[in-house]
Design a protein that fits this description.
Bound molecules: 2-acetamido-2-deoxy-beta-D-glucopyranose
Number of domains: 3
Main location: endoplasmic reticulum
Distance between the termini: 66 Å
Number of helices: 16
Shape: globular
CATH class of the largest domain: Alpha Beta
Membrane topology: Single-pass membrane protein
Keywords: Membrane, Signal, Transmembrane, Transmembrane helix
Pfam families: Thioredoxin, Thioredoxin_6
Helix content: 40-55%
Function: Probable disulfide isomerase, which participates in the folding of proteins containing disulfide bonds. May act as a dithiol oxidase. Acts as a regulator of endoplasmic reticulum-mitochondria contact sites via its ability to regulate redox signals.
Strand content: 15-25%
Largest sheet: 6 strands, mixed
């Protein structure tokens, strides 16, 4: 009996502790008054929204991961507290904002715990985090997958440019500043001051800035170009940033199943491209970003067609034009992939697509037909009612306008039409 009571008590305290620490706080109108008191990560939701419900558990895990940080995590029902929603300009659900002081940042990455936690961690500190000791630098090297660092005295044009870029990109990237000494071993060729990126165990130092072009623009463009790991998984969440790299994106298009695995053929093909990337890094790194598209929809939309899987697709991130190998990509060997990339870089392949008006139109039509197809597969009855009914009425109206005068004369045609419409509805 005693043991039972103890264990009940223990579990009670345990729940209490974990609740009070890591709770997602349900916010009300009063949020507008208290939001200035600390840093907030808030999900704005509506009870009827399916994506919000799907995000709920992810958001709870996020709150737990942020338990030992100054960030408080909350959610707000926008249908009940409309004043807060309109004050903060919430337009869709779910919207996740990070609020500190008067600053508001909108979360735009994939809705995973990892992305949400990184987003909050980056924003909870200053745009550039100062590192004073070599030990802290080692910690950063271990903890961060990818970060930018300014090395040297914190003054002058390069520092200002670095700080400005950090302010713009704080919600996406991590920025540090440090004195030279600790990094001697890492950045051998760099002269202080310098800007570098650390990724995948190595580092790249920003080349000296030429006389043309402003320091601010050059630093920001370099950071945008270097912000991804060497072989990146591309999703709707990071695509907008990839299009800002200014590089040629060389991608393998595959189709992941629900648990994130690939068929043997697709996996082999993906590894081939990665091998090509590692072997030819020196030659391509500056101009090419390699990666893989986990779901083919993005690729199909860029190429305005249903791509065979797996395949290689290259995209000029500045012009949105794309390139496909002449041979069917699944039978390309590594040497042929290298040739393909070289041909793009020396302009001997003709790009297709792009952002022109007609391409845009084609893309819209293509995407609409794809969504219609998906809707059809998901729920054929609803789709045919939604589209069949208005079409049926439209054809009736057209019929009566254009063929009104011969209506009486051709009774059987009318029967035929009603018959057709009936079938359409039934489908
Ligand atoms: C870069 O931007 C910062 C902040 O906007 C500004 O103070 C500085 O003068 C700019 N530097 C140059 C060289 O334009
Ligand atoms: C990519 O597009 C930009 C902008 O249209 C163009 O200047 C550049 O030459 C293109 N690069 C390649 C390799 O086609």
């Amino acid at each position: 009996m005693k043991i039972l009571i103890v264990s009940v008590l223990a579990s009670f305290f345990f729940c209490e502790a974990s609740n009070s620490f890591n709770r997602v706080i349900e916010l009300t109108d009063r949020f507008l008054e208290v939001k200035g008191d600390s840093q907030w990560l808030v999900m704005f939701y509506a009870p009827w929204c399916g994506h919000c419900r799907k995000m709920e558990p992810v958001f709870m895990q996020t709150a737990q991961s942020l338990a030992n940080t100054p960030v408080r995590v909350g959610k707000l029902d926008c249908t009940r507290f409309t004043s807060v929603a309109s004050e903060l300009g919430i337009k869709g659900f779910p919207t996740v904002l990070f609020l500190k002081g008067d600053e508001v940042f909108t979360f735009s990455r994939d809705r995973t715990r990892e992305e949400l936690v990184d987003f909050a961690r980056r924003l909870s500190g200053p745009p550039v985090k100062f590192i004073d000791s070599c030990t802290d630098m080692q910690v950063a090297l271990q903890d961060e997958k990818l970060f930018f660092v300014y090395v040297g005295e914190r003054k002058g044009d390069l520092w200002l440019a670095f700080e400005t870029s950090a302010k713009h990109l704080q919600d996406h990237l991590m920025f540090f500043a440090i004195e030279m000494d600790c990094l001697k071993w890492h950045l051998k060729e760099a002269k202080s001051p310098a800007v570098a990126v650390f990724k995948e165990g190595g580092n790249i130092v920003m080349p000296p800035i030429g006389l043309d072009g402003g320091v601010n623009e050059t630093v920001q463009q370099w950071i945008l170009a270097e912000q991804f790991e060497d072989f990146v998984r591309i999703t709707y969440g990071n695509l907008p940033l990839l299009l800002k790299t200014g590089k040629i994106l060389v991608l393998v298009v595959v189709d992941e199943d629900k648990v994130g695995t690939l068929t043997h053929e697709m996996d082999t093909f993906k590894r081939d491209l990665e091998a090509v990337m590692r072997k030819n890094q020196e030659e391509f790194r500056e101009k090419v970003q390699f990666g893989w598209l986990a779901s083919p929809e993005i690729g199909n939309s860029i190429a305005i067609t249903t791509l065979p899987l797996p395949c290689i697709l290259a995209v000029n991130s500045s012009s949105y034009q794309y390139f496909l190998p002449e041979k069917e990509s699944s039978i390309l060997d590594q040497e042929e992939i290298v040739e393909f990339v070289r041909a793009i870089l020396d302009f001997s392949l003709v790009p297709q697509g792009g952002r022109s008006y007609s391409t845009h139109f084609q893309r819209t039509v293509f995407e609409a037909s794809v969504s219609l197809g998906q809707m059809w597969r998901g729920n054929p009855v609803l789709t045919s009612v939604l589209f069949g009914l208005p079409l049926g009425f439209l054809s009736l109206i057209c019929y009566s306008i254009f063929c009104g005068d011969i209506m009486e004369a051709r009774d059987d045609d009318e029967d035929q039409l009603i018959d057709d419409e009936f079938h359409e509805k039934k489908e």
